[in-house]
Specification:
The protein is an alpha/beta fold and 264 residues long. It is built from 9 helices and 7 strands; from the N terminus they run E-H-E-H-E-H-E-H-E-H-E-H-H-H-H-E.
Length: 264
């Protein structure tokens, strides 16, 4: 199925690994030209090298206003015009208890999970109005509707992002479609890296490796009985950004294995 993305320009944040990287790669596979942004320079450069000339990169700390401005300055003239597609994927999360979250932690989480998207959309959407069929996809989380005590600061920040998505969809219609995806547990480097989520849940459940993952799956009540992959989330993102989703805005499908049937 032709998604109508060939020749379109796209900006993807948090693009060095996981969902962001899979999204950038799928957009390129569908014929788009991608500007990929992240704070992690080495994996970003590796993505650029593998992109066959279809990927350019910007190294920026999107948890700051200056970082968002630096990306917007490049993005608004990427390939000579404002982008057709903006994927706001940059975010953070950490397993901890509510009592462990400091005031500084709350601010850091909201700066990246909420304000990065708010700032980038404020900087970029006015110019994106001129691009016919422009689309924004925000990567939110099933935590936006189903908060978990183990992610006490991430859950409210994602709920705020879900609300912002609906607001933007109304504000910029009919010129720009704005949607979200709500991933459930997705197997990314946030889980697999040393010190990642896997090590934390191994301690919580007293099990190792796949056994710990399955304990989490059972505890979360995931009907499909497994974690998702970055590619599965990327497929939903790219569809929502494409011409095939031309009558979808203000929507937020869950890519979560069935943990929540309807997000919005």
């Amino acid at each position: 199925m032709d998604l109508g993305i060939t020749g379109r320009t796209a900006v993807v944040t948090g693009a060095s690994t996981g969902i962001g990287r899979a999204t950038a790669e799928l957009l390129v596979a569908e014929g788009a030209l991608v500007l990929a942004a992240d704070i992690a320079e080495q994996p970003l450069r590796e993505l650029e090298a593998a992109g066959g000339g279809a990927i350019e990169v910007v190294v920026a700390d999107l948890s700051t206003l200056d970082g968002c401005r630096a990306l917007a300055d490049v993005a608004l003239d990427f390939r000579g015009h404002a982008p057709d597609i903006l994927v706001n994927n940059a975010g953070m999360g950490r397993i901890r208890s509510l009592e462990e979250v400091t005031d500084e932690d709350w601010h850091a989480t909201f700066e990246l999970n909420f304000f990065a998207t708010q700032r980038l959309t404020s900087l970029m959407l006015p110019s994106m109005r001129a691009r016919e069929g422009a689309a924004v996809v925000n990567v939110v989380s099933d935590l936006a509707q189903q908060p978990e005590p183990t992610f006490p600061d991430s859950s409210p920040s994602k709920a705020a992002l879900a609300n912002l998505t609906r607001l933007l969809a109304k504000e910029y219609a009919p010129d720009i479609r704005v949607n979200a995806v709500h991933p459930g547990p997705i197997w990314t480097p946030l889980w697999s890296r040393p010190g990642g989520f896997l090590e934390t849940i191994e301690g919580i459940y007293g099990k190792k490796g796949d056994d710990a993952v399955q304990a989490l799956v059972q505890d979360r009540g995931i009907p499909l009985q497994r974690m998702g992959t970055p590619e599965e989330v990327a497929s939903a993102i790219v569809f929502l950004a494409s011409a095939r989703a031309s009558f979808i805005t203000g929507s937020g499908p869950g890519v979560n294995g069935g943990t929540i049937a309807t997000m919005f």
